[in-house]
Amino acid sequence: MAEITFSEITKVFDGNVTAVDRLDLHVAEGEFMVLVGPSGCGKTTALRMLAGLEEISSGTLSIGGRVVNNVLPKDRDVAMVFQNYALYPHMSVAQNMGFALKVRKEPKVEIERKVAEAAGILRLSEYLDRRPKALSGGQRQRVAMGRAIVRSPQAFLMDEPLSNLDAQLRVEMRLEIARIQRLLGVATVYVTHDQIEAMTMGDRVAVMRGGQLQQVAPPQQLYDFPANEFVAGFMGSPPMNLLRARAVIFENRPAVTLGSQRVVVPDRYTASHDLVRPDGDELVLGIRPEDIEIVEGDGGLSLETRVERCEALGSEILVHLSLAGASETVSSLAYDADVAVSRLPVLVARVGPQSRVTVGDTLRVRLNDERLHFFDARSGVSLRRETP
After folding, report:
1. pTM of this prediction?
2. Which residues span the domain enclosing 343?
3. Does residue 63 share a domain with residue 167?
4. Cβ(273)–Cβ(374) under 8 Å?
5. For residues 147 and 29, what is the distance between their CA atoms, to the nearest angstrom?
6. What are the backbone angles phi and psi of residue 25, rounded to the nearest 5°?
7. How many other β-carbons are positioned within 10 Å of the β-carbon of residue 339?
8. DSSP sequence for 253-292
9. Are 7 and 24 within 8 A, CB to CB?
10. I want to staple 37 with a disulfide (CB 3.0 to 4.6 A). Which of 41, 45, 191, 249 is the partner?
């Protein structure tokens, strides 16, 4: 086992294109680290530099305390699992899993022992004599993992290994990969664009955007205390509602206006957030869909809304609401780092399946005053003074 450290790692491609910009990231021994972000954010490039498949422009990369910037891929003692299985079709499962050991000229008895041990972990023992074409997609992916496991590497590197599987199989394989990683206790760097995979699999998650690390933290901390507007909008499905607002003072208390509606900021936030700002200064108010409740009458942090669309998902309903008196004040659901965020007057609430809502209804909704988030409108950085 070994730890992995990226120190000021930068990758610049021809044409002065910076794919990874001064990445600082530490992966502890036995840790499952997930790199997540939209397409083109630099996560796969970072993984390929770790594997030795891309040259490092600047910075220091170490594995187990050894600097590996100029070490050949075969000498780094890491094993990579790709999104395409890359299995040899003419070989059996056992032969595919043991091929790297055969190339290293390990004794046949030792190869058979390691393959049998890995097959037991992966629940592939009964398939060792089959060819890849006789296996399901999930089984082929497990064979690819088995080929990595038998090498007993210092670290596993996984590049979107589940992207070719159907939805149900992805769920099953998420659980399987997490189980195997915890059983083996080997440092793992896992790349995905799927934030659900990131939330459910990682010990910690590193969110990237435009080649830069935005935040690294345990999944629940990312969800509860996003460092900036991008992380808030990227992590979560559906994502956090991000409402463009303006700061005002109402009865000597900080408040924000959303179009023609005013929300007084609860006292608890004045101590933990930097909310003292000039009248009319723009900021962003964030609220998760599950923290919005349909209510009768005024009271609390309530807003007047109109139902624009309903998505019945069986276990819940996603209600899309427009804000009365608001025009271009709410960030789009499609929060993409490469596309300018449109400001649509839509707020999404997650409600129970028993809720009776119809398009065109006028509703009063209350925001959970213990689950508000505030961000600077210019930088996007959270206004929270420190993360708990």
Report:
1. 0.88
2. 234-376
3. yes
4. yes
5. 21
6. -155, 135
7. 10
8. EEEEEETTEEEEPPHHHHHHB-----TT-EEEEEE-GGGE
9. yes
10. 41
Task: Give me the CATH number covering residue 308.
Answer: 2.40.50.140
> Looking at the structure, do residues 223 and 249 belong to the same domain, yes or no?
no
Model pLDDT for residues 233-246, shown as the tens digit of each residue: 999 888 899 998 88
Nearest alpha carbon to residue 52 among 33, 71, 24, 67: 71
Please give the Cα distance from 259 to 328 (Å, whole number).
9
pLDDT at 326: 62
What is the per-residue DSSP string for 7-66?
EEEEEEETTTEEEEEEEEEEE-TT-EEEEE-STTSSHHHHHHHHHTSS--SEEEEEETTE
131 lies in the same domain as 279: no
Closest by CA to 270, choosing from 253, 287, 249, is 253
Tens of pLDDT, residue by residue over 51-82, are 999 999 999 999 999 999 999 998 999 999 88
- Per-residue CA distances from 344 to 244, 311, 335, 349 (Å): 10, 18, 12, 15
| Among 23-27, 214-218, 319-323, 326-330, the least confident range | 326-330
- DSSP string for residues in 175-226: HHHHHHHHHHT-EEEEEES-HHHHHHH-SEEEEEETTEEEEEE-HHHHHHS-
Picking from 194, 350, 365, 246, the residue whose alpha carbon sits closest to that of residue 295 is 365
CA atoms of 266 and 192, how far apart (whole Å)? 37
* Segment (H or E) for 144: helix 137-149
Residue type, 365: V
In the numeric block, which tokens belong to residue 305?
A: 């809304």
Q: What is the dihedral of CA 363, 368, 371, 375, to 10 degrees?
A: 50
Rg (CA), the chain: 25
Cβ atoms of 353 and 336 within 8 Å: the answer is no
